[in-house]
Amino acid sequence: MRAFQYTRARSLSEAVTAAAAGATPLAGGTTLVELLRAEIARPAHVVDLRWVGELREWDTAGEPARIGALTSMAALAADPLMAARFPAVVESLQLAASGQLRAMATIGGNLLQASRCPAFRDGRSPCNRRAPGSGCAARTGPAHDHAVRGTSTACVAPYPGDLAVALVAADAEIETRSPAGTRRIPAAALHRAPGATPEREHVLGRGELIAAVLVPGGPTARNAAFVKVRDRGSFAFALGSAAVGLEVSAGLVIAARVVLGSVATIPWRSHEAESVLVGERLTAGTARAAADAALAGTCGPRAEAARGAVTKACLTAASRAGVS
Amino acid sequence: MSIGSPQVRADAVAKVTGVARYAADHRPPGMLHARLVTSTIARGLITSIDASDASGLPGVRAVITHHDLAGELNPVQALVDGGHFHTAACPLAGPVIRHAGQIVALVVAETGEVAERAAHAVDVRYATGPAVLDLADTDPADDVEVARWEVGDRMPGGAVAVDEVYTTPAQHHHAIELYAVLAQWRGASLEVDVPTQWVQGEQRGLAAALGVPESAVRVRAPYVGGGFGGKAVVLWHTVLVAWAARRLAAPVRLFVTRQQCATVASFRPQSTHRVRLTATSGGRLLGYEHDVRAQTSRTDTVGLAGTAMTARLYATSRIRCRETVAPVDAPTPGFMRAPAEFGHAFALESAVDELAARLQVDPVALRLRNEPARDPVTRLPFGGRHLSQCLRLGAELFGWADRDPRPRSMSDAGELIGWGCAASLYPANGGGIVECRMTLDEDGRAVVEVAATDLGTGAATVLAQIAADAAGLDPGAVVVTLGDSVLPAGLMAAGSCTTGSAGSAVYRAGLLLRAALERGESAPVTVTARWVPRGMTPALHAAHRRGSRVQLGPVRDGRVLFAYGAQFAEVRVDPVTGMVRVPRVVGVFDAGRIVNPRTARAQLVGGITWGIGHAIMERTPIDRSRAAFSGTDLGACHVATHADVGQVRVEMLDIADPAVNPLGVKGVGEIGLVGTVAAVTNAVYHATGVRVRRLPVEPAVLVSAR
């Protein structure tokens, strides 16, 4: 690990000031500490947010539900109001990481978690995300590691997170704080596809910190499911995942959200799948048709996993919407 | 009787409270900290090493490279050639890079943090050559043959034949305790704390490489946090640390990172198995052909010829086996739990299940029908062989009679259910010569000493039970001391034979002590015993005297000696996602006499757990374009979690086999894994109708076949 300056922020404005001066924010530390030790992250300055009380406040009864960025994954996953209003969000948390990590990791940090691509993580293979211009070792590596949506010649790394997928499906917004003030960003617009600049992973500006996540209630948020396909029962990133939310009236789907995880370089909303579902009865056949629409033209282990995840999430969301 | 009682491990409290000190827990005064730098290319030459940034960091004491080591170490031999080393090729002997992740420098600093920082700052440049790692990228014409044999002169024509290819991936041990070393010199004497399965092999290997007398080297490993074969041999970083400690005149301790563990030691090589079975339409096996290819390194030819095991499972009149290895740009592969049995048994037991499906014969009945009366390879009699009993009892405990044999015929709550079974066998190895010293002191405490190793299995507890019964003492009065090279001669803890071999020496020492006490001798009394297994040839005696490893195999003294088992697995497959769960496994084992049912059960459950992992998730991915393991940490290499292992029921027949050793024990360390893998994949076939011949099962394979 390289030496760095460490600042413990006492307030959000102190944290924003430090971040604006170039400091890397530290929240739960479950990703950053690992990256520091591997010298994949080499910040000159780290600002520790964990003593900023205003980032810990959360209210899941309000409309929209407001979740402070420092809320732990474990705490939010255990909240009964969340489970009732946003079951897919809770499922995405329960299926993520391990119990120990969920106790440490924060909501804001989870959204900005770093790539799990082996070329990025090993600290030395060519990786444009870690070392811009160095190339992409993953492109010629195992297909298992390849995203199938949103890739570029510079980067094929799948976005590994689960929570962001469920939040996009729930029409959540991200409230940020920066020297310029407060703004809200749709969760769907937080992450950037790699394009030619994979090192720029999100749209947050210098000094801009996630303050809270806002989740509006509603039928597609309530009748929602998150499904994660992976090779073991716990403590594994998804091969493919999906969050699906449905609004059903008189047996027909009148609104749908279909978002894919771990199969694209960012949480990937599939309008194609949604339009397959809207106006139809949700059956095993339409669920599969939605999955095929979402993954049209793709192949490989991640695409197959995501296909299964979309299908199953559609069926589970439908049962939550009262479709029998 | 202490033998047969389910005693808690003697060191259980010390381990769970953190009192037990593993190699990396030691911190002598003045200790320096080492870290490794490993190569980023798979094949080629180091053209330059710029260590100036690293050396300039405050607290860095040395950056040791091939420039420093050239000519400093003696040539040594790999284990496969009668020596003690993982590979004969010292990674710092010169500028040659033989595989990705090869050690290229050892950094030594005053703190671990500085050493870690400095390791990142060493700039190594290479000239890169073409490299190949994946078995699929090799040409069989370049293979080296390691076994070729046959029984019977002509393949009988059979009505039904299975002729399929099965493949297994590269895998790593990933013991919870990482590789680590602490080396310190006291004058001309070296003391090394290192997790090893073979303290005296480590001692001899270090002495040979460093050019010091064996008596000047002491190796300690009282606690080992899992070995699984990875810690069986001398790893080069151990020698490098000892050399650095001598040069810097200070104790030096090395941690190897999780990622580096995958390339500085051995691994389970990829393998492909073509199996051809011929049988009558009534399900009597006539012929068994098995062709195996596996990876080896370019420096050492390691052939883990397992057909010599699997050929003994069923009665056949004609057997033809050939095993070759393909040299690739890999670290030298080696032992990993059931090294010669896992892949071979997966292939054979899958093929037998395919045969059962084609013949529409129940897979248990098919196996029972082909139980051999004598060893089909040598025609010698078997020792105790109770495979049929394992199959019958396992079927009964599992409820096998309720199985609808048709694939995709069983389901529950939207999930497909499958039931599969497989047979297991593992050689009842004889080990070699073991010595034991037993001392009864004036406080009534009996100290048992032998240079065997407890890898966390409970070996010390089991040996105490044997000693207590033999000497007629209370087991609480017996203290077993293992894991130190100064102790009486012990063996590598490998091949599931510590209880049988060290136990036999301990048993004999106990009897001698009892006789001494009965003669009226009073404490303190010391006795020494020497156990020479039956079947030691003059050549093996010579090997023992040389300090080479001796392992008597399963064919000895006119008999063929194996442990057996039968595993039954239930899988649930989500037909939408292809995810496989294993809610229950039943395993019944004929592993001879069971000294401690608690620790034996733990070993068998552990083996079954690995088998589940091997079936549905474990593999080290390979980047073929770069000839490198891709993702070598536990985020990429999945092993089974609690959530993956449902109800596991283990039954042990507990029938002593006096042909194996005086105690009648066969060993439980590896057999639990052997049949589990095929039991799970056979169950996947039964659930889905999809035959998985390539491990591990991937969800996508089951989904795309919907």
From TrEMBL, chain A:
What's an example of a GO molecular-function annotation for this chain? Answer: FAD binding
Indicate yes or no for the key word Oxidoreductase.
Answer: yes
Q: Which Pfam families match?
A: CO_deh_flav_C, FAD_binding_5
Ordered alphabetically, the record's keywords are: Oxidoreductase
Extract the Gene3D superfamilies matched here.
3.30.465.10, CO dehydrogenase flavoprotein, C-terminal domain (3.30.390.50), Uridine Diphospho-n-acetylenolpyruvylglucosamine Reductase, domain 2 (3.30.43.10)
Report whether Zinc-finger shows up as a keyword of the record. Answer: no
InterPro entries tied to this protein: CO_DH_flav_C, CO_DH_flav_C_dom_sf, Diverse_Substr_Oxidored, FAD-bd_PCMH, FAD-bd_PCMH-like_sf, FAD-bd_PCMH_sub1, FAD-bd_PCMH_sub2, Mopterin_DH_FAD-bd
Protein name as it appears in the record: Uncharacterized protein
